[in-house]
Amino acid sequence: MTPVSETSAAVAPSTTRDGELVVSVVIPCLNEAASIERCVTLARNVLDDHEIPGEVIVVDNGSTDGSADLATNAGARVVPEQRRGYGSAYLAGFAAARGAYIVMADADLTYDFNDIPRFVERLEDGAELVMGDRMDNIKPGAMPWLHRYIGNPVLTGTLNLFFRTGVKDAHCGMRALKRDVLPRLDLQTTGMEFASEMVIRASKENLAIDQIPIEYHPREGESKLSSFRDGWRHLRFLLVHSPTHLFFVPGAFLTGLGILVMATVLAHVNVFGRSWDVHSMIGGSLLTIVGTQILALGLCARAYGVYILGEDDVWFQRMRPRIKLEHGLLAGAALIIAGLALGGVIIGKWIASGAGALSQTRLALFGATLLIVGIQVFFSSFLLSILGLRRPT
Fold it and tell me: Per the domain annotation, does 2 fall within a domain?
């Protein structure tokens, strides 16, 4: 394990009157021997030229090519982090940072360290998170077409659809934030999805987010990014943190479609000149049951976010005092009773016909659906109540 290296006295960062640094430039590094020395030198020169009291922190993420020694010799404070991952490196760097402002940048020379003062200026003007926007200033060969025209636009667009952040380039690696907002962000992820998590958490915490256009240059050395794996990790993270789009939208769609199909069959409505029968009724029943279960999972996910994770969900918090456990139990019980009643009607008709062959297939499927959905609602209400036991007082 590489020991923590402090900046030598010859390049020790100046400090403010109260002993605090103004800026900590945090650079994650994994086998970046081709560029890390120049990155550190450029960052230190920019801080010195603009008389910004600061430090350069390089988080060595298990390099085997001497990157840590090169960074130390260039004047960086090297922090070792053996847990691999983009997020792990930044979490270690944030923990070690002493500056009031943190500027993030990659170790591959894709970003211009001369932009550091611009980021700091926006923070001093009141922004709490400043995002770089590369998309209009990408140098030839700097970004593969798959990332430029599909990956980044799709993921950024999805993030803005789910969370309405207004950020143009949600995965830009050069950004800056005030160190005192880190406890509010409570960042946890260890991989590339860390970039999305920061923007999402900043949006949920209503931080003042600003953006500035920057240039993006061809990288030095070998890229560590895996397009499909890391893209999926970003998308997975977005879905997990948006119960509305992960659960409620598909759940409501399936439930509504299932009810429509069953109603069409029960009403003997011809569709495209054909009469739907028992097979359509089975499909409608399946859609309704699955959709209801997904909706219930969505409510539980929202409850977990509010009660356990402490998230601010306006809709859930508005409805919580209005809809109680007893309301869910009554709704579930009503559906169960309705389903059992239909079963009783079918049995009554069967007895009245001399206990012969049953011919109430549609009604039986409808009754079974009501019974199953009622059971789902009944016990999901209890689960929501159990989650509510952990809500803060």
Answer: no
Does position 149 have pLDDT exceeding 50, yes or no?
yes
d(CA 40, CA 57): 9
- Overall number of domains in the chain: 2
The CATH number of whichever domain residue 32 belongs to comes to 3.90.550.10
Nearest to 22 by CA among 143, 156, 176: 176
Q: How far is CA 95 from CA 78, 102, 307, in A?
A: 13, 11, 27
Q: Are residues 230 and 134 in the same domain?
A: yes
CA-based nearest residue to 172, from 139, 130, 141, 140: 130
Distance in angstroms (rounded) separating the CA atoms of residues 138 and 225: 18
pTM above 0.85, yes or no: no
Place of tokens 């800056």: 176
What does DSSP say about strands 77-80 and 54-60: parallel, antiparallel, or unpaired?
A: parallel
Which of 106-115, 272-281, 351-360 comes out lowest in average pLDDT? 351-360
253 plus 128 within the same structural domain: no
